[in-house]
Every structure is written in structure tokens, then in C-alpha cells.
């Protein structure tokens, strides 16, 4: 799995694209100016970097994603668990809940997810 990394500024910019796509590159530059105080050249430079990484495409001035936000963060999470916990999701969850108390709703949601995954695997 190829890892695509983004810095904090790139991630905020990517969110603008994901939230507004399809979006014209001119509108994207305008929004980046409003939200981040960027000049057009900065917005276009960051857009080119993200396109070069394979996250987005700019086809004749229309910017769309090549990878959804969910897929990007899913891949990033998988990589983190693989590198940090030898791929063990239970080890990750044990470490996570040792520092953060889960709400009853979170516990119920996790149970539903595990049960649904178990039923899919049958």
C-alpha cells in the first residue's frame, strides 16, 4: 500500500476540496484565500502537490478527488496500526482505551461494528 502523506496545511486544503467537489480551481483558490489567507499561487502550488500525490485531479480547471476522504484516512489508520501495533487492532484498542474512557454509546457502536464484521466474514 502506497502511503500518501499530507502536512497540516495540505490536510486543511484537502478538506476544502472534499467538501466542495467538484470545484473549479479558481473557486478553490478564492476559498483558500478566504479561509487561510493564501495567495492564488500558494493555492495552486498546494493543489499541484496534492494532484502529484494522487489524491486529486485537476481536469481543465475542475478539481475532483481520486481518493475519498474516508479512503485516505482509512489507509492512514491502517498504516499506523500496522507500524505501531504490528497490525493488531486489539492491541491498538487496548492502548487507546487505557487513556480514554469510552462512552456507553461508543462501546455500543464498537460492538455493532464487530458483530457486523463477524457476520460478513461468515
Q: Helix amount, in percent?
A: 55-70%
Beta-strand fraction estimate = 5-15%
Number of strands: 3
What overall form do the CA principal axes indicate?
Answer: elongated
**Total separate domains:** 2
Strand order of the main beta sheet, please? Answer: 1-3-2
Indicate the CATH topology of the largest domain.
Answer: Arc Repressor Mutant, subunit A
Task: Report the CATH architecture of the largest domain.
Answer: Orthogonal Bundle
Descriptive overview:
This protein is mainly alpha-helical. The protein has two domains: 62 residues, Arc Repressor Mutant, subunit A (Orthogonal Bundle), CATH 1.10.10.10; 35 residues. The chain is 68% helix and 8% strand. It is built from six helices and three strands, in the order H-E-H-H-E-E-H-H-H. The chain has a three-stranded antiparallel sheet. Helix 2 packs across helix 3. The protein is elongated. The two termini are 26 Å apart.
Main features:
122 residues, 6 helices, 2 domains, single chain, 3-stranded antiparallel β-sheet, mainly alpha, Arc Repressor Mutant, subunit A
Give me a quick take on this structure.
By secondary structure, this protein is mostly helical. It folds into 2 domains: 8-69, Arc Repressor Mutant, subunit A, CATH 1.10.10.10; 88-122. Helices cover 68% and strands 8% of the residues.
Amino acid at each position: 500500500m502506497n502511503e500518501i502523506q499530507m502536512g497540516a496545511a495540505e490536510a486543511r486544503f484537502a478538506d476544502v476540496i472534499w467538501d466542495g467537489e467538484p470545484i473549479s480551481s479558481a473557486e478553490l483558490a478564492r476559498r483558500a484565500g478566504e479561509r487561510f489567507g493564501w495567495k492564488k499561487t500558494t493555492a495552486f502550488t498546494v493543489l499541484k502537490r496534492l494532484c502529484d500525490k494522487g489524491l486529486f485531479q485537476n481536469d481543465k480547471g475542475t478539481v475532483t478527488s481520486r481518493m475519498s476522504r474516508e479512503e485516505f484516512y482509512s489507509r492512514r489508520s491502517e498504516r499506523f496500526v500496522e507500524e505501531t501495533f504490528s497490525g493488531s487492532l486489539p492491541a491498538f484498542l487496548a492502548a487507546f482505551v487505557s487513556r480514554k474512557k469510552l462512552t456507553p454509546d461508543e462501546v455500543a457502536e464498537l460492538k455493532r461494528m464487530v458483530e457486523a464484521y463477524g457476520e460478513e466474514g461468515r
